[in-house]
Amino acid sequence: MKIKNFTRKRKLISLYGVIFSCFSMMISTVTMPVMAATDVIDSPVITDHDEQSVYDDGYNNGYEQGLAEEHQKQKKVSRPIKSELSIETVSLTPNELANVEYLNAEKALDQQNSKQAALNLESALYYRPHWVMARQKLAALYYGRGNVQEAIATLERGLAAQPNQVDLRLTLAKLLINESQLQAALTVLNERSGHMSIQYLAMRGALAQQLKHHNIALACYQQLIQRAPNDGRWWMGLAIVQEQTKAINKALTSYHKALVVGNISSSSQLFIQQRLNAIKQQHKE
């Protein structure tokens, strides 16, 4: 008889949610007066078979096997066979071992044991180094415990193996922004080559705008407008950069466009009206 242990649990980890929520809010700190928030990245999750389905399948299979055995006994009486119990050792793959460690980390977090959870996540990454979700969670744990350098190092090790991993770059940039290291954050976002997501461009553009890297900011907002021309947030961002570079007529057009297409907050609308009034006043003088 082959003995297997099925562990099928997913838990909502309240501690991790609190720790990781600090990352999702960091982008608001780098925007110009009213830069809009970007969407949250979904992370892959572990999926498992339904426990009741596993139980039902096992029950049904056992019931059918019992009927077949009974039918066989009626047809032929066989000599009794000595019953033996054997235990078979099952070798787990690296991914399976990583999953075990990840689930153990979730259990530790559920018990408010972040130190043990960090050890389990480190083991999970040992078996599966490219697991982005586990690496983000480990970095969040370190950061939540006040170990900023280890949190940064954890993300940097991931990027060393996966240089074009967008989620890791965004997470690291947000962490650096929260530590007031804006130039370092922009450097992290500048290093990536290839396709850039809307969230990536929005954060990069906002950082470049604050740091007065006007060429980078203009390029980011122009790309955002090409992808989502009916989003007023990107027109407002473009207008701010144009005003900073003294392209006043273009800035006026972009500010008005932002009001027309919408998808901006009431505070953003108020900011745009203030800038329009200020520009008009300057031209009168």
How would you describe this structure to a colleague?
With 285 residues, the protein is mainly α. It is built from 13 helices and no strands.
> What's the pLDDT, averaged over the residues?
77
> In CATH, what is the class of the domain at 12-22 and 92-162?
Mainly Alpha
Estimate the strand proportion: under 5%
Uncertain runs with pLDDT below 50, 5 residues or more?
A: 1-71
Order of helices and strands: HHHHHHHHHHHHH
The computed structural class is mainly alpha
Query: Main β-sheet: number of strands, strand sense, barrel status?
Result: none
Q: In the CATH hierarchy, what is the architecture of the domain at 12-22 and 92-162 at level 2? A: Alpha Horseshoe
CATH topology of the domain at 12-22 and 92-162: Serine Threonine Protein Phosphatase 5, Tetratricopeptide repeat
Compute the number of helices.
13
Distance between the termini: 92 Å
Helix content: 55-70%
Round the Cα radius of gyration to an integer and report it.
28 Å
Number of distinct beta strands? 0
Shape: elongated
Sum up the structure in keywords.
Serine Threonine Protein Phosphatase 5, Tetratricopeptide repeat; elongated; TPR_rpt; membrane; 285 residues; mainly alpha; TPR repeat; 13 helices; TPR-like_helical_dom_sf; single chain
